[in-house]
Write a sequence for this structure.
């Protein structure tokens, strides 16, 4: 190991994993699960109300407790409000799920549109799962990495949007939920792994090493 390498500590790994799992549960798994459960037990309106109530409840809870609100929670809740309004007005499950499918294309566009910013959207979203210290985010090579990885994630969302749209037009609702959920998570997992390996390579080139835990614990 290069003795001159700069070591940046990211805190305990278990804390980071719990934080990432909480965000995933709050913004994706719980609303989707409640929608499907209430749709099965009641009707479309029950599913719409259950999913939206969960999202708004999580948001209000964080506001009242003055807890940090992740950018991904603002984004998903705002989009869910629009989806629910259209789904309720039309009474169409197809249109309800068509919207998040089309949102993949919107997010891809936003990722590309923020490429020129010092902190593009992908960097802000990454902070929701693992907040990086200023010593890292101010590094020019790290900033360049986030601009480049935005292209990768834009491609991921474009691919996911196109595939989901194709399945939505051909499958039943139950099959659609199973196939698209499994497919989306698999695609995102692969992209996340590629992004992590790419990120570590960029840091090594800059002489930076990331360590989980605290500086005090490492010294001991």
């Amino acid at each position: 190991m290069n003795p001159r390498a700069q070591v940046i500590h990211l805190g305990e790994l278990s804390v980071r994993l719990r934080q990432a799992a909480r965000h995933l549960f709050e913004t994706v798994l719980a609303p989707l699960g409640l929608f499907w459960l209430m749709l099965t037990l009641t009707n479309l309106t029950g599913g719409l109300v259950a999913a939206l109530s969960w999202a708004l409840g999580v948001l209000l809870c964080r506001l009242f407790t003055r807890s940090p609100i992740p950018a991904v929670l603002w984004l998903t809740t705002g989009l869910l409000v629009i989806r629910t309004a259209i789904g309720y007005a039309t009474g169409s499950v197809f249109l309800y799920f068509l919207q998040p499918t089309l949102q993949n294309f919107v997010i891809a566009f936003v990722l590309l549109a923020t490429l020129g910013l010092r902190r593009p959207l992908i960097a802000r979203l990454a902070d929701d799962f693992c907040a990086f210290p200023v010593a890292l985010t101010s590094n020019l090579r790290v900033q360049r990495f986030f601009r480049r990885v935005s292209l990768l994630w834009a491609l991921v969302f474009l691919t996911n949007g196109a595939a989901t749209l194709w399945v939505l037009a051909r499958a039943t609702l139950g099959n659609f939920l199973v196939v698209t959920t499994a497919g989306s998570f698999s695609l995102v997992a692969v992209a996340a792994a590629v992004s992590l390996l790419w990120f570590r390579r960029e840091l090594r080139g800059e002489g930076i090493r990331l360590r989980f835990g605290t500086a005090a614990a490492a010294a001991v």
